[in-house]
């Protein structure tokens, strides 16, 4: 529940607003004489409550019950005990680097926070940093200029982070930079929610926060890279393996 609680903290204003609107619609239904209008208002009231519950349940499944931050589904794909250098990209929220460093003490992991992302100034970010303190070796990066030498990295991990690069051209530049710094047999691992039917059902307009699968493939292919594998982590998120 640790991350789900943070999701509630980040979205509490929207949740409270939804509850208020739902109550107002339900109360208003008692002041209207039209049977069809009463039914409509009560259905809308119920749907708002249902959507809040569904989105929180989906968040729990995605963030606290899935393999999203465990990376167990990379077994047989990446052996962190054997690789030398890796980059972890996040967007001011890092629940992963501490565990990776503890599990693989010989891994040279560089933790990168995307400079200027939308989460930097959110009210809940300070609380989230108390739960998951920033890595002391973390650096800020501009996605279009990665501060690494050519062909120096074995793996680039980007877990629910790259959708914060809002401009398509900037995403293309990031992938071009990733291609430059990766070794010939290097791998980019991108885990993201897609703007798809499932996420619209559970997260409603919140799904607009994400990119469609088509947008990801366009940015990746424009950088001269290819998606070699597209794995479902949960019904709400996919892991793309890119070379």
TrEMBL record:
This is Methyltransferase domain-containing protein. InterPro entries: Methyltransf_11, SAM-dependent_MTases_sf. One of its GO terms (biological process) is methylation. Coiled coil: none annotated. Residues 140-190 form the Methyltransferase type domain. Keywords: Membrane, Methyltransferase, Transferase, Transmembrane, Transmembrane helix. The chain crosses the membrane at residues 12-32, 38-63. GO terms for molecular function: S-adenosylmethionine-dependent methyltransferase activity. The keyword Protein transport does not apply. Pfam families: Methyltransf_11 (PF08241). The keyword Transmembrane helix applies.
């Amino acid at each position: 529940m640790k991350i789900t609680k943070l999701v509630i903290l980040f979205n509490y204003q929207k949740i409270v607003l939804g509850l208020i609107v739902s109550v107002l619609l339900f109360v208003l239904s008692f002041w209207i004489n039209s049977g069809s209008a009463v039914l409509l208002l009560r259905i809308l009231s119920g749907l708002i409550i249902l959507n809040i519950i569904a989105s929180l349940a989906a968040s729990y499944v995605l963030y606290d019950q899935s393999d999203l931050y465990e990376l167990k589904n990379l077994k047989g794909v990446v052996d962190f005990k054997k690789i030398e250098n890796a980059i972890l990209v996040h967007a001011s929220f890092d629940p992963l680097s501490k565990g990776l460093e503890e599990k693989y003490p010989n891994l040279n992991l560089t933790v990168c926070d995307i400079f200027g992302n939308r989460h930097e100034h959110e009210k809940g970010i300070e609380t989230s940093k108390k739960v998951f303190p920033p890595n002391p070796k973390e650096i800020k990066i501009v996605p279009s200029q990665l501060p690494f030498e050519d062909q120096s990295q074995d793996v680039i991990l980007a877990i629910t982070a790259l959708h914060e690069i809002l401009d398509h051209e900037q995403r293309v530049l990031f992938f071009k930079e990733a291609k430059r710094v990766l070794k010939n047999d290097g791998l980019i691992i991108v885990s993201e929610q897609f703007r798809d039917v499932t996420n619209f059902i559970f997260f409603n307009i919140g799904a607009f926060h994400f990119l469609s699968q088509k947008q990801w493939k366009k940015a990746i292919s424009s950088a001269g890279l290819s998606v070699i594998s597209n794995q479902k982590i949960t019904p709400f998120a996919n892991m793309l393996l890119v070379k």
